[in-house]
Design a protein that fits this description.
The chain has a two-stranded antiparallel sheet. The termini are far apart. It folds into two domains: about 5-50, no CATH class; about 50-100, no CATH class. The protein has five helices and two strands; from the N terminus they run H-H-H-H-H-E-E. The protein has helices at about 10-20, 25-50, 55-60, 65-70, 75-80, and strands at about 90, 95-100. By secondary structure, it is mainly alpha-helical. The protein is elongated.
Amino acid sequence: MPSARVTVTLPADVVEEIDRMQRNRSAFVLDALRHELRRRRREQLRRSLRAPHRESRAMAETGFAAWARGLPEEDAAALVDPKAGTPVRWVPGKGWMEGGR
């Protein structure tokens, strides 16, 4: 993957601490940034599960099988298998919970 040069200003004491732990500052910063990006994606997912998009809530209330039946037949067969996966249900205030209604 191509690289892009980025200039970042850090406090001198932080740079000194990085240098004590890792000779390659770029590798250290890259690792830290990837770690933080993963953490933020997980947090976004948690927020989404606590407060799903209104279309997700409508699908949960309708039921997945009913939603899938509403798709054009050629699309539904390619997109979903209602018998696959684990049944879940939406519990207000708690989010998605395992188990049917």
